[in-house]
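Weekly modeling sync, notes
Attendees: S.R. (lead), two postdocs, one rotation student

Agenda item 3: backlog of single-chain predictions. S.R. asked that every request posted to the team notebook include the full sequence so nobody has to chase files. The rotation student volunteered to paste the first one in as an example of the format we agreed on. Action items at the bottom.

Example entry:
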Amino acid sequence: MYFAARPNRKEETFGSLGILYAILEIGLLDFIAYFNLATIIIVVPTGITIFSRLATTHGTKIFYSRVCGPTGVVLANSSLDIILDETYYVVAHFRYVLSIGAVFAIIAGFIPRYPLFTGLTVNSSIVKHLFIVIFIGKD
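Predicted structure, as returned to the notebook:
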């Protein structure tokens, strides 16, 4: 679960080295593990990243601007994963993570660099409309 937090004081991310290793481990396990096994194994580094983010936001005022990722956390429970196996829930999770997650990551990486390439700034209302069109009009 990701959310935007505006800390009252300037602070560093809690467990940033642990988060780095957890993200590298998630990427490595995605390449070598098969679906059910990957879901059960990847829960450990994902839990490290989730709890590090929660620890970072401790004592801050949180503004919920977006929430994403709870489908993977639900599938990390092995009993629920067995029950939900071969259902539309798992299909929707993979489609969201693989397609929309990748597209949003590409756009999120491109928009801050657009002024470097062209010398022009991006209109924020156009970007918000682009987000809505991609998110709602995916299927």
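Discussion: group reviewed the output briefly. Residues 79-138 form one domain.
Action items: rotation student to repeat for the remaining queue; S.R. to check formatting next week.
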